[in-house]
Amino acid sequence: MAHFIKLFNEISYNDLSKVGGKNASLGEMYNQLNPKGIKVPDGYATTSDAYWFFLDQNNLREQLSTVLDTLDKEHFGNLGEVGQQTRALMLGARFPNEIRKEIEEGYTYLKSKYGEEISLAVRSSATAEDLPKASFAGQLETYLNVSGLENLYKACHHSYASLFTDRAIKYRVDNGFEHMQVALSVGVQTMVRSDEACSGVMFTLDPDSGFRNVVVISGSWGLGENVVQGAVNTDEFVVFKPMIDKASQPIISRKLGSKAKTMVYAAKSEGELQSPTDAIVNLDTPPEKQDEFVLQDAEVIQLAKWGNDIEAHYKQAMDIEWAKDGLTGDLFIVQARPETVKSQQQDQASFTEYTLKEESEVLCSGIGLSNRIVSGIARILNSPKEIDKLQEGEVLVTTKTDPDWDPILKKASAIVTEQGGRTSHAAIVAREVGAVAVLGTNNATSAIQDGQEVTVSSAGGETGYVYEGRLEWEEKKTDLSKLGKPRTKAMLILGDPEQAFKYSFLPNDGVGLMRMEFIINNSIQIHPMALKHFDQVEDPEARGKIEQLTHHYPNKEDYFVARLAEATSIIAAAFYPKDVIVRMSDFKSNEYANLIGGRKFEPEESNPMIGLRGASRYYHPLYQEGFELECRAMKKVREEMGLTNVKLMIPFCRTVEEGKKVIDLMAGYGLKRGENALEIYVMVEIPSNALLAEQFAEHFDGFSIGSNDLTQLTLGADRDSSLLSDIFSPFDAAVQQLIVMTLQKAKQTGKKVGLCGQAPSDYPEYASFLVAHGIDSISFNPDAFFRGVENMLQAESGQVKK
Question: What is the mean pLDDT of residues 785-795?
Fold first, then answer.
């Protein structure tokens, strides 16, 4: 076949200069991955030769260069005028018969293979597009549901002109591409009827942290433009790569988006090519569809497998578009390009933490990106035409962004939108330009006033906040290359899954304490017994909240199990295969009572600190059914999700007999010690744990010293009392003697001992005391981790007085 088109079955990634990144990738996948089961719609592409032939037949090279030379490259004040002139030149030119003839040959080929009534997607692919250092995301036009040969010609002609949209011109200037050295290839593809089903995007890494062991999939009902443009808040699924082919349930997170709009094809007149905006219409999504995930678990896993295979083929992290055909039920990959932000970052040798030093009124919140803090003047824009209103360094506030906004976004220090998710256009561009972003706030343009001073923070995890006024914050950068690694294990104390991927990059040995109660309090919010016995919850407000939170789940117990399992699995996956020691819930009765529906099921105790807590609670009739739900969740994490690096720990175990009871109870719930490599640890918080360490060691695999409770119960001093602060000391001789006793007895029985607490990071001499007596591991809160490691290194080198 002649040189103006190439069928997908003739294209490989080596043809990038001929057909652009998008089409080269489609041809490569069609040939190399389609045979392996990855479905890619068939098609063909016009070549760069066709594009240059088009320009030369119309003498456009010089004319376009002359107009582009007038562009104000400093302020871009005449960008709109230059773009309009160049597009007029392109659309006013004759579309050569030589190119038409070959487009028709490709069209005839597709009709012979897929039927006379085929509908086509016509996509633009620049020869510089989708290269590793530039995504060209959404810069060029796509024409959907194109039927008939004449409309196909028009779509190809308009695709050529889209190389000169205002945003594409500005993008080339910003990224150092010469206008007249970039050609355009048109991809002509059989349509996937996602208007009758769903579509979305998929990253083969976490696009915020750069964590490589997950596939992140987002989607919405209808055509994919809503997802890419951030017009809807999408469903999101996170799949753990190492378990895709090993575990029955490798999905470690599901988040239901509102999906308020569904994009479908607009009705069209026969023989009429519609513009990209006229060809589609956004309908309100019915409430029952908003409450439904767009993909079944099996489909999520299928896409994740494909993403993994595509990444392996290209040997780099990928940004992939997928679509489901509502007529056949088949999934397809419709585009794949290299991920261009996190995978390109070379600086893994430093770790920067941002901490707000003060707070003020929260104006709005949403999905936070970039783990940073900025402040500035908020500028509310309704359209990209208002570019002149936004000054360099101001905070852009708008409903949503699409590629027309790209010339503006580089000026913004932060981007705040009402719509959009982590994989939307706004998110991709925010990462590229290095802006802080808070997306999907729902109310930003009404909650924030134009010209108001604000502080935008995404430093606290997945949720980002916009605060009133300019607040102070602290930036702390640590050079990891200069931080040594101690012989004693340096572990983390964590409870927030939103921070897990970020903290996995610290030079750690795993998680020595994962606080389950943090997850119950934040991710679940409901007392487990209120879920087991919802009929006994009398408070109308509590009943309403429980119904609202659980209505997406088959039953209320499943809500607790699924939420706890997924939050735990995020942390376990972040540090896999390192140990993640999960402490079963350790609320006091007054804290349990504060959970939704909790007051009905909790006793009133005069001293909850030494009341019904820890091991005693687990087998007590007041809570045993709640503990069963905790065990079901941990069994799901270890067995269905395959995260056997999760070890379990029992807090506040007063007697050896009590420890045996809990171990037997857990075995009855499917968590048998030693089975599937399950280890169960016990906290050392009570003098009895140290005094009888050998007996406890017969039933547990290791110990973790909780120094605050141990100090409190050894000295009989309330750890929260400011009146007793002089007495409450980790250096007290009696407390230290109990710690030494624990370490000695544990060594004799071959059991490991760790310690979780603040003292080793606050006091170098305390770290030295622990290291000198053979502690196996010390766990720190993330904000104290570097200080703690330095203290451990000093202790091991003998620089600190023991």
Answer: 92
